[in-house]
Amino acid sequence: MKSKKVLVIDDEKDLLELLTTRLQGEGFEVTCAFNGKEGLDKAAEWKPDLILLDIMMPEMDGIQTLKVLKETSETRTIPVIMLTCKGETESIFKTEKLGSTDYIIKPFDSTELLSLVKRYI
């Protein structure tokens, strides 16, 4: 069976490394982007099965990135799980209206995240 592909878009290098290690350990193929613009490019060229997207990032935040992903025909149907900090309820509401699939609040347990990822791909 072909490995499922997960794109992680987050500006926190330590979190990217942790998620990459954990997801690869579960058999997923993983690629990362450090900001929304890079994430959009990688989503278009790599065609992931799921995207993990941080809300708070420099240059282009997760809300703007999600909006473009959902407006683009090649990426519109890809499930997107938002990574958010506690207290960002307004941002969560915005992402749900834009078409995010689900969200998880940082700091999160990697087992909880894996369960969420497996639910949607």
| Topology-level CATH name | Rossmann fold
CATH architecture: 3-Layer(aba) Sandwich
Number of helices: 5
> CATH superfamily, please?
Response regulator
CATH class: Alpha Beta
Q: What share of the residues lie within helices?
A: 40-55%
Mean pLDDT: 95
What is the chain-wise order of helices and strands?
EHEHEHEHEH
Helical/strand content category: alpha/beta
Overview of this protein structure:
The chain has 121 residues and is an alpha/beta fold. Helix content is 45%, strand content 21%. It has five helices and five strands. The chain has helices at 13-25, 36-46, 62-71, 89-98, 110-120; strands at residues 5-9, 29-33, 50-54, 80-85, 102-106. It has a five-stranded parallel beta sheet, with helices on both faces. Strand 4 (80-85), helix 4 and strand 5 form a beta-alpha-beta unit. It is globular, with a radius of gyration of 13 Å.
How would you briefly describe this protein structure?
The chain has 121 residues and is α/β, with parallel strands linked by helices.
